[in-house]
Amino acid sequence: MKYPKGSRQSHYTSLSNKQSYKTNDAFANRGMTLEKEIVESNNYYLESGKAVIHKKPTPVQVVQVDYPKRSAAVIKEAYYQKPSTTDFNGIYKGKHLDFEAKETKNKQSLPLTNIHPHQVKHMKRIEQHGGISFLIIRFTIKDETYLLPLEPLLVVWEQQELGGRKSLSYPFIKEHGYLIPFQLQAKVDYLSIIDDVYINGGD
Amino acid sequence: MKYPKGSRQSHYTSLSNKQSYKTNDAFANRGMTLEKEIVESNNYYLESGKAVIHKKPTPVQVVQVDYPKRSAAVIKEAYYQKPSTTDFNGIYKGKHLDFEAKETKNKQSLPLTNIHPHQVKHMKRIEQHGGISFLIIRFTIKDETYLLPLEPLLVVWEQQELGGRKSLSYPFIKEHGYLIPFQLQAKVDYLSIIDDVYINGGD
């Protein structure tokens, strides 16, 4: 699945402007696969009876709805809202799981602007009540996906509030996070990490 | 907050048709308060550090989006989707909670058509994985709200599939459910029932 470094880049630059735009778009879509792969992994977990984890729908503020006779209501005007919690939650081995997935095309860090303050607050609350909360972070270009527990995230988050660095660096994530293995049925097999780190002890 | 029996009813019947329509509409809105009251109770639980329970956004299938320059994306065509899980979930005392809220103007039963088969399937999965799943049912006219655990719901659900009655009768809910007390800060104080029935044992 990995391309030799730069091969993709040189392919793009040989295309005309318009095609290049389209191809870059396709590349952007490839960058959007983390969420899709987690949803697929969750489906596998669900069907195999391992866990019940769902993605929350994106909240939408509906302004105008039409009710045509004999057919479904049509939303005519609505706006995306900022989610006040995380993207995914559910239950695994009796534990409440709650996490957010982020991916970046950066090679060296994930900017903290990707994470909202109310999401961090929510994650803290989850752990205070006995749940498990974490980030799944993908470095698209490296094709590496990490599970970063809440604790190291909080360290960087609080340092940022005191004027510290405004991103999670790749070496930091590599040191404090766990590389999520690729599995054929669960492409983002994060539950294997949950087992090692949270359920069977460790860290 | 409780009116003498029938007083509300007689007030409506003395109104003209048109007014009556409007008033009934307002009455219908009053019927929509259960969800709102649960959301408010959840806010109270959240702020007081008791539990973290959120309503999931209604899933919407977006067909067309406009991206005006310098302003937020506008959804121009979208449709409501059937939720595949329940309305509410979260964590309380380390336990995963997952439930659905239903209200009815019927006096004698809640029709099972109010509950989708995939929701029942979801609720069963939650309990299989060690979570707590239940219904909150309000009889609007009686002004009574019950917590009905999954188990009695399943009994009626499975009998229905074999040709049994297609509703949860009021006497059945009264017998197998728990009347949720009204509290000033948590108007639907279902966590008090969770404590009695699930956390501190009982039933």
UniProtKB/TrEMBL annotation, chains A, B:
| Catalytic reaction equation(s) | Endonucleolytic cleavage at a junction such as a reciprocal single-stranded crossover between two homologous DNA duplexes (Holliday junction)
| Database matches in InterPro entries | Resolv_RecU, Restrct_endonuc-II-like, tRNA_endonuc-like_dom_sf
Q: Which positions bind Mg(2+)?
A: T85, D87, E100, Q119
Cofactors required: Mg(2+)
Site keyed Transition state stabilizer: positions = K102
Origin: domain of life:
Bacteria
Q: What is its EC number?
A: 3.1.21.10
Instruction: Recite the UniProt keywords alphabetically.
Output: Cytoplasm, DNA damage, DNA recombination, DNA repair, Endonuclease, Hydrolase, Magnesium, Metal-binding, Nuclease
Q: Where found, per UniProt?
A: Cytoplasm
UniProt xrefs under HAMAP family: RecU
Its biological purpose is as follows: Endonuclease that resolves Holliday junction intermediates in genetic recombination. Cleaves mobile four-strand junctions by introducing symmetrical nicks in paired strands. Promotes annealing of linear ssDNA with homologous dsDNA. Required for DNA repair, homologous recombination and chromosome segregation.
Entry's family note? Belongs to the RecU family.
Task: Spell out the protein name for this chain.
Answer: Holliday junction resolvase RecU
Organism, by scientific name, is Alkalibacillus silvisoli
What gene makes this protein? recU
